[in-house]
Amino acid sequence: MGESKPLPDRATITATLIDYVAQLREEGMDGLPPSARPSSAAAAPAVEQSRRVVNAASDSSAASRSAPAREMFSKYPGLEKTESLEALREFIGDCRRCKLWGLRKNLVFGVGDPHAELMFIGEGPGADEDARGEPFVGRAGQLLTDIIERGMGMTRAQVYICNVIKCRPPENRNPEPDEVAACEPFMMRQIELVKPRVIVGLGTFAVQAVLKVKTPISRLRGNWQDVNGVRMMPTFHPAYLLRNPADKRLVWQDVQQVLKELGRPIPGRSGA
Ligand code: SF4
Asked: Do residues 210 and 197 make contact, with C-beta atoms less than 8 angstroms apart?
């Protein structure tokens, strides 16, 4: 008779259920109990596991690039030789490296200061972004602008904003794994070229794609992560905040940590 597998303990089952419910909540499902928000010690093991995965990725890097990042770069010879954002945009060209190319109006590369100390990374373009060729220009984009300007005392021109995926998935569905695999090397090169001191990861999809974890954003937010030697603060996506305005206070806490890390004043706290 073969050995039976040990059953997971109660804490593991609880953490898994909390993860699942939190994920549903972030995907917009209504009617979930408020207690779905993880805040207890039961959440700790999964978050700690995520941290170990992230740290393992960065520790294994001989230079600053993690092993997954090196693998990404090996996919596109010449990518790491692009010396500027303009050169990278030229390298990407009229991209047809995944099936999203045929559905886009515009490829949405990124905007802002090419040497910004602060970089925002979201999921992918929506309809407004696809039409304009610029990230975060719809309602969610206006909220991001408010966070940057009113919440952080900065301007959009002072930061750099891009997405994991450069072309709009149809009907705003989540990007599929093959699309992420095809497109994420460009985002990784954008990080290397901009060299921000801090990245803010916006929302479940972007943070999970960058960190290579499955932990929901509600468990990662507020906790510093490492992306090839750059500190990343995960927080909620502005589109989620439009549906859940009460959670703006959590994003406010997260951006305060970012401002402290950058050594910038917190608006409203300096007597100004
Ligand atoms: S999503 Fe990325 S990989 Fe796919 S076609 Fe657009 S730029 Fe190319």
From this structure: no
The whole-model pTM stands at 0.79
Report the separation in Å between the CA atom of 98 and the middle of ligand 1, taken as the mean of its atom positions: 5
197 Cβ contact partners less than 8 Å away, ≥ 6 residues apart: 117, 118, 230, 231, 261, 262
**Helix, strand, coil percent content, the chain, rounded in steps of 5:** 55, 10, 40
User: Which residue from 90, 91, 95, 186 has its CB within 8 A of the most atoms of ligand 1, so it is best to mutate?
Assistant: 95
Terminal alpha carbon distance of the chain: 74
* Residue 235 resides in a domain: yes
- Enter the tokens of residue 132: 């304009």
Q: How many domains does the chain have?
A: 1
Whichever domain contains 134, its CATH number is 3.40.470.10
Cα 99 to ligand 1 centroid, rounded to whole Å: 8
pLDDT in tens, 162-190: 999 999 999 989 999 999 999 999 999 99
Q: How far apart are CA 230 and CA 223, in angstroms?
A: 14
Residue 78, domain member (yes or no): yes
